[in-house]
Amino acid sequence: MAKPNYKFAKRQKELAKKKKKEEKLKRKQTKKEDGFDPATDAEADDGPDETS
């Protein structure tokens, strides 16, 4: 029986993690360029204030 190649598995995992991080950064930059402001959008999503 062949033994597992842990170095290969680790490298693949690292590459996947790096790719995911780069895609996330690219999405953030795209939103920033489009004028997306999370601070103003968060205020609108709070919903109505309930006073009881």
Task: Describe this structure as you would to a colleague.
- By secondary structure, the protein is mainly α.
- Helices cover 67% and strands 0% of the residues.
- It has two helices and no strands.
- The protein has helices at 6-33, 38-44.
- It is elongated and about 70 Å long.
A few lines on this structure:
This protein has 52 residues and is an all-alpha fold.
Major sheet: none
User: How far do the termini sit from each other?
Assistant: 69 Å
Number of strands: 0
* Global geometry: elongated
Structure class: mainly alpha
Secondary-structure element pattern, one letter each: HH
Which regions are unreliable across 5 or more consecutive residues at pLDDT < 50?
Answer: none
What is the gyration radius calculated from CA atoms? 21 Å
| Oligomeric nature of the chains | single chain
Q: What fraction strand?
A: under 5%
Summed up, the helix count is 2
What share of the residues lie within helices?
55-70%
